[in-house]
C-alpha cells in the first residue's frame, strides 16, 4: 500500500473565495475545506454548494482534498461534500463509534449517487471533547474508512476541560498520549503534536511550527495541520528527513547487511550499536523520505502546470 503523505495542511472556510482560489499555491499536502467552525450558521447551506469549485482550485496544486463537515448536520453535509476528487471527510468533535458508523453509511450512499468507487472516501475522526478522549479506541476502530485520527487538544478541548488554551505547561498531556497510541495501535495517520510551551496564541509562528514538526517526527508522528500559511513549509520541512539523516540511514543499512552476511546480529558503527531494530528504523526513514520526495515532485509538477495555465490566461 502506498504511503499517505500528510505533513502539512490548512483548514480554511470554504465560503471565503480569496482563500479557496489561492489554496493551490500554498504547497499543502492536503487542504481541509471547512463547513464547520469557520462558516457562520447563516452560510452553512451556501457552503454546501461550493465543494466542486473548491476541488477545482485545490487540486491544481497537487494537494489532497478534505472537507470538514459539521458534527450536527452530517445528513445535510455529506451528500454535498462527497464529490469526485474529495479523498476524506473530516468529522469534528467525534464522541462515539455510532457517529462513525452512521457517517460511513452516509458516505457509502453518497458514493453510490456520485458514481464513486465504493470505499474511496476516507474518514478523519477529530477528538475535541473529554467524552471523545474516553471513547478514542472505539471511535477510531468503528469503520474501515477511518484512516486518520486527530485531536485531544485545541480550543474546543480546552473549553470542555475548563482549562486555559495557552499556558506554559501541557494541559493536554493525557489526551495527546491517548490519541497517538490509539492511532499507532490501529495503523492510522495521527495528526497531533508533542508539547512545546506556547503562551502567545499565535497560529502563524513559523519557527515554533518547524521545531514542533521536527520533534513530532522524532516521536513517530508524520502529519501536521495549520490555520496560517506560515506553517505549511515548516511542517513540510520538519516532517521530512534531512539529507544527513538519509545518508546515515543508508550507512546503517549497509553495515547491518554486512553483519548479516558475516552471521552477526549486531555490531558497532562509529561508536554506536547497530542491530535489527536500528536497521528497521533506518529502513522506515528511507521509505518515508522517498514517499516525501515523490509527494514533493508531484506537487511541484502540478503547481508548475497551474502557473503555466494561469500565465496563458486559462
Automatic annotation (TrEMBL):
Binding of substrate, residues: 68, 128
GO biological process, one term: oxaloacetate metabolic process
This protein's name: HpcH/HpaI aldolase/citrate lyase domain-containing protein
SUPFAM superfamilies named in the record: Phosphoenolpyruvate/pyruvate domain
Cofactor: Mg(2+)
Organism name: Entotheonella factor
InterPro entries tied to this protein: Aldolase/citrate-lyase_domain (IPR005000), Citrate_lyase_beta/mcl1/mcl2 (IPR011206), Pyrv/PenolPyrv_kinase-like_dom (IPR015813), Pyrv_kinase-like_dom_sf (IPR040442)
Keyword Secreted in record: no
Every HpcH/HpaI aldolase/citrate lyase domain range: 8-198
Molecular function GO labels: catalytic activity; magnesium ion binding
Database matches in Gene3D superfamilies: Phosphoenolpyruvate-binding domains
Keyword set includes Nucleotide-binding: no
Residues reported in the UniProt entry to bind Mg(2+): 128, 156
Pfam families with a match to the protein in the record: HpcH_HpaI (PF03328)
Keywords: Magnesium, Metal-binding
